[in-house]
From TrEMBL:
Keywords: Hydrolase
Superkingdom of this protein's organism: Bacteria
Cited InterPro entries: His_Pase_superF_clade-1, His_PPase_superfam, NUDIX_hydrolase-like_dom_sf, NUDIX_hydrolase_dom, Nudix_hydrolase_domain
Coiled coil: none
Pfam families named among the record's database cross-references: His_Phos_1, NUDIX
Domain Nudix hydrolase: 3-132
GO molecular function per UniProt: bis(5'-nucleosyl)-tetraphosphatase (asymmetrical) activity
Keyword Hydrolase: yes
Originating organism: Candidatus Nanopelagicus hibericus
Regions that span the bilayer: none
Protein name per UniProt: 8-oxo-dGTP diphosphatase
């Protein structure tokens, strides 16, 4: 049995001058087809990092990622393929140079784009996209990367550092979360949280917002502080990331979604896992999960 080829891509969209939603479709001379930007996941690469990279490589378009659109499976010329897709809004259109892989880009109205797409699997993703509320903003709830266990650490728990795996995870977070075009990064003042997001914040040129209200020690004293902090970020309409602890984040997510139509994720967050809350204004419309980067 052939091994499944993992791939990822994004449905890239913009608003036209007439305020209509348009999507980018690309022509691949090798297959003589019109399709959505996508490509194979590289070794140790996450699917969303692959999707972000492929959009830039194939279209030269800079985007900010939105909601996860799901996955499709089909038989390609190279074997069985499984492709994960996200929505991605245009931030900047750079000059496109036709090449042997992609020789043309066409912008078509999303509502009429199905007839331009060659693959049925692409049409399936387009159909999902057309049912979405497009202009959502993400709030990422990230658990800190893997730290030394409490048994291995003799000092104050807030000072417990990342272990070697956690340090590697922290270095790889940028490849994932740059896709969301973050405007703010907030973190607990615990060392293991700060060190998880500091490399990413530095690379993105963002000032870290450090708060004791997101720490475990503060949570033991007042469980409302972390929730109030996250709720304020929901209201802020910023593309933001919040790094905190496993005892805190599930409770925050459950409380944030309590009055929404979206069910909370019941699965445990492992070190460097995250939930992405997509919202329009104060309305939460979807929650996606992103696994820790592989190393």
């Amino acid at each position: 049995m052939s091994k499944i080829i993992l791939a990822a891509g994004a449905l890239v969209w913009r608003k036209s001058k007439e305020k209509k939603i348009e999507i980018a479709v690309i022509h691949r001379p090798k297959y003589n087809d019109w399709t959505i930007p996508k490509g194979k996941v590289e070794l140790s690469e996450s699917s969303i990092a692959c999707a972000y990279r492929e959009v830039i490589e194939e279209t030269s378009i800079e985007t900010e990622f939105g909601m996860y659109l799901g996955e499709v499976k089909y038989q390609s010329l190279d074997g069985p393929k499984q492709v994960s897709f996200w929505s991605a809004q245009v931030v900047k259109e750079n000059t496109f140079t036709p090449n042997s892989e992609v020789d043309a880009i066409k912008w078509v109205e999303a509502a009429k784009a199905a007839k331009f797409l060659s693959l049925e699997s692409d049409k399936e993703i387009l159909s999902k996209f057309n049912k979405l509320k497009y202009e959502s903003k993400p709030l990422v709830l990230l658990r800190h990367a893997k730290a030394l266990s409490r048994d291995e650490w003799q000092g104050d728990d807030d000072d417990r550092p990342l272990d070697s795996l956690g340090q590697m995870q922290a270095k790889r977070l940028l490849s994932i979360y740059q896709a969301f075009n973050l405007e703010q990064i907030h973190t607990s003042d615990a060392i293991r949280c700060y060190d998880t997001v500091e490399p990413m914040a530095k690379a993105l040129g963002l000032r870290l917002e450090v708060s004791n209200n997101l720490s475990e020690s503060a949570f033991k004293k007042d469980k409302e502080d972390a929730f109030d902090y996250a709720r304020d970020l929901i209201k802020s309409d910023k593309r933001a990331l919040l790094c905190s602890h496993n005892p805190i984040l599930p409770k925050v997510l459950n409380k944030l979604t309590k009055k929404s139509d979206v069910e909370s994720d019941e699965e445990k967050l492992y070190p460097a896992d995250a939930w992405v809350i997509h919202r329009i204004g104060k309305e939460i419309i979807q929650i996606d999960r992103i696994d820790a980067p592989t190393t």
